[in-house]
Specification:
5-stranded mixed β-sheet; mainly beta; rod-shaped
Length: about 210
């Protein structure tokens, strides 16, 4: 009879004992995985260096991941993973422009995946050279219905209001029909512009006498 206790084998009579050691030989690199800068929505733009990184993979033996701006993983800082889908904080390099980051996975056998790259555009500058004119800069109008001429460098949206408070964003356009506030007197129309990264300009305005 043979018993096993705390790593020791006890033989009660003359026996031949065979000991087998089994282990997995894993030479398979981690497979293709998903990597997005800015989160799982995979945005094109961000207006802050403090963003996030999203990784998702099908392999179940992944131990660690690494994010780097270098062209290889030699100097990688490896971080452990406990789930097959994670979103972690990531800080981009300063300075507006396209930022590219490489991601790697490493499994328990030490196999490292090929790099997967993603890019995001860092834009921290609000729309510039913003303007608005009412009825082509007319001084007077006899109607509350006017036409606004609008201009901005970098805008994708605009918010027009008869007060200094922005109420509703809409797609940027260089011309728009607008209704002034009722009552005779000087009327002011305000506009703010927003770009694709979410940067919002200060309000600009124009006046006209109704």
């Amino acid at each position: 009879a043979i018993t096993y206790n705390e790593g020791r084998v006890t033989v009660t009579s003359n026996k031949t004992i065979y000991c087998y050691l089994y282990f997995d030989l894993d030479k398979v690199l981690p497979q293709v995985f998903t990597f997005y800068l800015g989160g799982s929505s995979n945005p094109t733009y961000t207006n802050t260096v403090s963003t996030s990184a999203y990784l998702s993979f099908a392999d179940t033996d992944i131990k660690e991941y690494c994010l780097t701006t270098e062209s290889d993983n030699i100097n990688c800082t490896w971080n452990e993973v406990s789930e097959t889908s994670i979103e972690v904080d990531y800080t981009l390099a300063n300075g507006d422009g396209t930022k590219t980051v490489n991601a790697y996975l490493r499994d328990y056998a030490g196999n490292v995946s090929p790099e997967v790259s993603d890019s995001i555009i860092l834009d921290t500058t609000p729309p510039e050279n913003n303007s608005i004119s009412i009825n082509n800069n007319a001084a007077y109008t006899t109607s509350t219905g006017v036409t606004l001429t609008l201009s901005s460098n970098g805008a994708t949206e605009m918010c027009i209001s008869n007060t200094e408070t922005c109420t509703s964003w809409e797609t940027y356009s260089t011309s728009k029909s607008h209704t002034l506030a009722s009552g005779l007197g000087t009327k002011t129309v305000y506009v703010q512009y927003k770009d694709a990264a979410g940067n919002i300009s200060s309000a600009v305005s124009d006046t006209i006498s109704l």
